[in-house]
Amino acid sequence: MSSKKMGRPPSDNPKSETIKIRIDQAILSKLDACTEKLDTTRSDIVRKGIEKVYDDLQK
Fold first, then answer.
1. What is the model's pLDDT at position 7?
2. What letter would DSSP give residue 4?
3. Which residues, 6 or more positions from 11, have their beta carbon under 8 angstroms from its beta carbon?
4. pLDDT value at position 10?
5. Angle between helices 42-58 and 25-38 (to 10 degrees)
6. For 37-58, what is the mean pLDDT?
7. Residues 40, 50: contact at Cβ < 8 Å?
8. What is each CA distance from 22 to 1, 25, 26, 54, in whole angstroms?
9. How far apart are CA 21 and CA 12, in angstroms?
10. CA separation for the pair 33, 20 (Å, rounded)
11. In the chain, what is the greatest distance between 2 CA atoms, to the nearest angstrom?
């Protein structure tokens, strides 16, 4: 047998860091509405939001 491991290949950009935030029900509802509309995850929406704010600050 080969010595290669089975499973998912390693990522080029691993997401190993985690954060925990507190939000109210209104923000959670908006976040969930975004996930449904864009068919993505909460994490992806938060990442996109951070990128958008960061890009706006660079202007």
1. 86
2. P
3. none
4. 83
5. 100
6. 97
7. no
8. 49, 10, 12, 21
9. 26
10. 20
11. 55
